[in-house]
What does this fold into?
Amino acid sequence: MKKIIIKIVLGYLVILIVYNLYLTYTIERAVTSQIKICGEAVYLIPGIKTAMYHSVTNRIYIDPEFIKKYDTKELESLVWHERGHRERRFQLYVVSLLNTSLEVGGKIEKQSFIMIPFLYGPQIITAAVVIPMSHYQEFKADEFCGQHGYGGTLIKVIKKIVSEQLPSNLLLQVALDPFHPPVDARKIALNVKGLLK
It folds into this structure.
């Protein structure tokens, strides 16, 4: 029985890694061009509505609409934040795999005509682990950005993004985007460290 469980876990891990690589491939295919921000090659992907660092490609991606909406300093703050994620590349990859696990599990549940109870336990446990890990990664990336003099600007641009993409109600924000800490919590964290400039 123990060997069977190990095989199932390893098999599932292989599925997660392969699916994660597939997602990486789709991201790379969606790139339309690149620009330089703070000396960093930033790759443009229309429609992603965010800026993000990908731990597999080691690249930073941004929605080209952001280039039109935000000024130079705001864009630089986003790049420094994503560079902060790069500082913890391996940890971010682990979080990415856990997020993939949640996505794969969700797809299985939706495709099942009969609900599979044993899937929900691992899903809930995974979410309980990955959400605090994601929040920690965001706080550390904010801190890295703040250390380079962009803390206040970062909070300013995050508030703009949140106001455009999420409801004003805090509970709804948390429900719709549980993997990012609330903006006020991020502002307080930077202020405590004296990085809200």
